[in-house]
Amino acid sequence: MIFDIAYNWLFLLILPIVAFLYASVGHGGASGYLALMALFSVAPETMKPTALLLNLFVAGISFYYYYKEGFFNKKLFLVFALASIPLAFLGGTLEIDASLYKKILAILLVFAILKMLNVFGKENDRVKKIKLWQGLIVGGVIGFFSGLIGIGGGIILTPVILLFHWGKMKEAAAVSALFIWVNSASGLIGQLSSGVTLEAHSFLLVVIALIGGALGGYFGSKRINNLYLRYILAFVLVIACVKLYFT
User: Fold this and answer.
1) Could you write out the three-class secondary structure of 54-71?
2) Fewest CB atoms within 10 A around its CB: which of 124, 191, 196, 226?
3) Does 2 fall in a domain?
């Protein structure tokens, strides 16, 4: 199925736009890639490793730009990553029924939709110090589902950081970008260790996604207004969410 997508011009046109929008807010874009692949009826066993592979590159370049601008909070990252990395690996080793997979992914896409519409996770001037147990629980739960479903978890972590005032917008984006990278790497290793293989054409998608990701990370770490593009992406995610849940 990935072979067909590699030569589908519409998919290839939308892919870098998705990468651009996600990278602009410090995300790798896995939930967007999964939604896009769902619209093109890609099998779950292909969707998961492909999305995590794309995440590695796009989140990595997004983190580079945010780190370069001085927004990375190492301590905040570590309290989430300590539990998320091993649990993302565990989640990656587990197989899940295709029907259940689609429904869980549809539910998680709701977070992506709400984040794109800025319904929750707005910045606040007050910043509270996170406790270790809070970071371990939040990071562990997100990490497990990251590996299980094939996402990096940033689309959930960023709103949580902002909701509980553990960091500001740019700081949350920088932390989430590296959080996504380590979870994607751990989850992908878990999947590969359980016998999952990557299609050769997945790397063509990496190159295309990197174009959008590089631009998104650069402009997002500075200043950008992409409100209308976010609305379009949210609309695409809604369609994918409905398709996943009812098919």
Assistant:
1) HHHHHHHHHHHHHHHCCC
2) 124
3) no
